[in-house]
Amino acid sequence: MIIKNKFLKISTITVLLLAVISVIVYASSFSKDSKPNDAYSSDEIKDTRISFATWWHYPDIQSLVDRADIIIVGESIGTDDPIKVFDKLIIPDDANEDMLKHFEEVKDEFYRIVTNSNVKVHKVIKGNIDEGSLIKINQNGGIYEGTQYIVDGIELFEKNLNTVFFLQDNSHNEVIPYCTLNPYDGHLYIKNGKTQPNLGSSALKGSFTECEIIELLTQKVKQSNENNTGTLSQKNP
Question: What does the alpha-carbon distance between residue 105 and residue 11 come to, in Å, rounded to a whole number?
C-alpha cells in the first residue's frame, strides 16, 4: 500500500509496487476541534490525513491459518515512535530517459507512516518464534511531524490485552519485522475470557474461550500441515 503526501497523477507511466495496490483518498481538512482516535491522540496534532485501501479478506479460519507464517497469543505493551517508510518502485525495463528522470523526481512521494507495537509472545501456535520473546508488529498510521495518519480506520492494538495474531514474517526487515495479514482478520482480542468478533471480518466470528481458540487453531494448523504434506506427496510420487 502506498500513501502519498500530495496529489500526484502519472498519465503515461504504470507503476508496479511491491506491496498491495491500494486506492488512496486523503481528507486533511479537519478542524482542531475534531476528536482523533484515542490510539493516536496527541496535543501536537496540526493536521489529519485519512486514507482508504482495499485488503484481501479471508473467508474462514482455515484460510487464515494456511496463509499466516506465524500465529501467536500475545499482548501489546506499548508502541515505538511512528516512522516514515519509503516504498520501492519497480521501473519498467523499457523506461526511457524522460521516464527515468520522472521516477527520480517523484520517488520521495511514495511513502507510508507506520507504527510498530511491541508485543510480548505468550503462546506460539504456528511458526518459528520463541515464547516469552518481544516482537515488533507493524501497523499503518500514527502521528508523524504533527500530522495524524489514519489508514482505513485502523486503530493501534489495545495494550495489555491478550490477542491472537495472524502474522506475516518479515523478520529479515529490522524496520517492519512482522505485520498482520490485514487489519480486520489479522488479530482477535480476548476480553473477559472470550474472543471478541472483529467487525468487518468474515473469518473471525463466534466467541471462544482462550483455551478453545488455541485448541481450534492448533487443529487447523495440523490440518494445514497434513494438506501440504499430501500435496507434496502427489507432486513427488
Answer: 15
CA 144/CA 134 separation, integer angstroms: 24
Cα four-point dihedral sign 183, 188, 191, 194: positive
Residue by residue, pLDDT tens for the chain (237 residues) are: 444 443 333 333 333 333 333 333 333 333 333 333 444 555 578 999 988 888 888 999 999 999 999 999 999 999 999 999 887 777 788 888 888 887 778 777 778 899 999 999 999 999 999 999 999 999 999 999 999 999 887 888 999 999 999 999 998 888 889 999 998 899 999 999 999 988 778 888 889 999 999 999 999 999 999 988 765 445 555
pTM of this structure: 0.74
Element (H, E) at 104: helix 97-106
Question: Domain 16-232, CATH 2.40.50.120 — does that match?
Answer: yes
**What is the spatial distance between Cα 105 and Cα 109, in angstroms, rounded to a whole number?**
9
* Residue spans per domain, the chain: 16-232
Neighbours of 122 (CB within 10 A): 14
Q: How far apart are CA 81 and CA 142, in angstroms?
A: 8
Q: Could you tell me if residue 132 is left (phi over 0), alpha (psi between -120 and 50 degrees) or otherwise beta?
A: left
How would you classify residue 144: left for phi > 0, otherwise alpha for psi between -120 and 50, otherwise beta? Answer: beta
Distance CA(233)–CA(237), nearest Å, equals: 6
- Sign of the torsion angle spanned by Cα atoms 28, 139, 68, 123: negative
